[in-house]
Amino acid sequence: MRVTYETQKLSLRFFMLMLVLFGLQVVYGMILAAQQADPSLLAGVINFNVARASHLNLAVLWIVCGFVGSALFVTPLLAKRDVVAPWLVHLLFYAVIAIVIWNLGTQFLAQTGVAGWAGGQPWLQNGLEYIEMGRAAAVGVLVGFLILAFVVLKTFPPMRQWNEIHWGLGLGVSMLVVVWLFGMFYVPRIDVQEYFRWYVVHYWVEGVWEVIHITLVGAFLVLMFKANVRAIGFAVFWGVSFVWLSGLIGNAHHYFWIGTPEFWQFWGSLFSALEPLPLIFCFWHIYLDAHGNDRPLVNAPAFYFLLGSATLELVGAGILGFVMTFALTNVWSHGTWVTSGHGHLALFGTFGMLGIGSAYWAVPAVRKFAHFDQKLGKLGFWLVFVGMLGIALSFAWGGTIQIYVYRILGLDWFGGDVFPAMGVFKLLLPTFGFLFLVGTLVIIYDLTSMGRREGDDKRTAADVVLEPAAAPVGWRRPLTGFEAGIWLLFMWIFGMLVTFGLLSFNLDRVRIDADPTLPYLLSGVGNLGLLLVTLGFVWRFTASLTSRIHAARAPLPEPDLSVH
Predict the structure, then answer these.
(1) Is 67 in contact with 151 (CB distance < 8 Å)?
(2) Is residue 207 classed exposed, middle or buried when 0-12, 13-18 and 19+ CB atoms within 10 A define those classes?
(3) Among 350, 473, 498, 507, which residue has the fewest nearby CB atoms (within 10 Å)?
(4) Residue 222 class from Cβ within 10 Å (0-12 exposed, 13-18 middle, 19+ buried)?
(5) The whole model's pTM is what?
(6) Sign of the CA dihedral 9, 10, 11, 14?
(7) Residue 36: which of 422, 520, 338, 434 has the closest Cα?
(8) What are phi and psi of 258, to 5 degrees?
(9) Is the dihedral of CA 30, 337, 115, 251 positive or negative?
């Protein structure tokens, strides 16, 4: 771990800003969890809808900061030179801060009914879910993406020298600009506006972000394990291809209930069901590249978060996305806590953990501490990982009850009939949220104080002689491909139970006779089993890394990301 090019150090400020926004977002999340238990909390000060919008927007902004930091660290390695126009990178950093302040401020103006309309456009705040920011902030975001695309593409070598990692990152930063344009105007007709809103939310987040995610995962696997660049390029190519093959028409699962033609229910269900394919591919390649050689794991926190990113991408975005992707299941889960469980695992798990993992690789390199105390990083990982699984479980179980009480029994939501039925899970949510908050604070402290604590030193890998370790047995034995496949199989088995649980709401026994036994049983067993298997797999995978024989050996040559 070392910085090869001076401009790689520019990534540090974006990772630090990422941590600040991450912490602020989690605080808003805790406010939301507390308001679920007590709806009167902070009423009139920070209303639930304002806290929710701020929570979502901060998630987008800190994840984008992670992407920018990762791209700035990797791009010079891909180009074999410093990034061009560093002054633009400095401008981008301050622009992001300005957008954050503007966005948070206008949310409170929206609470008072001020949206700043002028010329038929809402300039302060437009109220569209997930992209609440007004036109002024949207223009700033567009300029920021243009700067990032220019810096990356201008730094890259001529296109004929690109490999798949160049293409993946180049396509990703370019499409950040293109897809964002669909969120740059307001359409009065709500069904047409929903078309364009989902272009941004689905294509931008579930499409473009996935392309960047797959590419950056591949790049960091090369850096961490000195994996073969051509093999990584093969995985990046097919991962990106599958994302676009399934995702373009798969966007139609957002068109089920917004007044669009009925044929979207078939096509949306079909192509959305294919969206887990690239996620399985990414998940499997993590296993292959981590076991491609017997090198010791140099930076455990960085890899733990990378592994968590790929695993929760598969479970949250893939399996739980598959659960709700069919019209016959989505008709029940749409707009409930069940969707929130999927969304939290998918967004934080896939993209958030990648940014944190990238920071754990880049920050020690920039600060020239190749060897640092990794205990806090690993502790932080397990706290946020278990906390997020618990949050998802609370949403899944509470959402199943919500579907039954609200949509089967037809009880009054605003009259308070649904609230008592979900009471246990409304208390469970902030409990796991507090665990997640503690993990967040550990991560922030660890990354911001790295290099200043006892136990960090500046020795290089060549200075450290590793003693041979006894061959491990039991839970720490080497993880074989067959066993990894068994773990994956059980994830999908429990995922199918969750799917059948939602499908069972269509049965006359449930829908007409109001018998909740079957959906409650399938949801209870399916969701708990899925998340326990996920936890067990990651624990098993990380434990198996100690099976590496830590013997002194000649170091492998430094990986070359620019290989054509």
Answers:
(1) no
(2) buried
(3) 473
(4) buried
(5) 0.93
(6) positive
(7) 422
(8) -120, 25
(9) positive
Which residues are paired to 117 by β-bridges? Answer: 122
Q: Nearest-CA neighbor of 295 among 1, 557, 550? A: 550
Nearest to 211 by CA among 249, 238, 232: 238
Residue 118: what are its φ and ψ, rounded to 5°? Answer: -160, 130
309-337 per-position pLDDT tens digit: 999 999 998 999 999 989 999 999 998 99
Q: Identify residue 285 by its one-letter amino acid code.
A: H
* Integer Cα distance of 159 and 445 in angstroms: 41
352: its two tokens: 């958030």
pLDDT of residue 112: 87
- Residue 147 is which amino acid? I
For residue range 457-471, list pLDDT tens digits in order: 555 444 444 444 556
Alpha helices of 181-315 — where are they, by DSSP H?
Answer: 190-198, 209-225, 229-250, 263-272, 276-290, 300-312
Tokens 């773990």: give the residue: 487
Identify the CA nearest to 147 among candidates 184, 104, 94, 185.
94
Using left for φ > 0, alpha for ψ between -120 and 50, and beta otherwise, residue 157 falls in beta
Report H helices in 10-132. Answer: 11-37, 48-79, 86-111
CA separation for the pair 12, 14 (Å, rounded): 5
**Closest alpha carbon to 15 in 452, 453, 444, 561:** 444
> Which regions in the chain score pLDDT beneath 70?
1, 293-294, 413-415, 453-472, 547-558, 563-564
Instruction: Read off the tokens for 509.
Output: 């026994």
Domain boundaries, the chain: 1-113, 162-277, 296-551
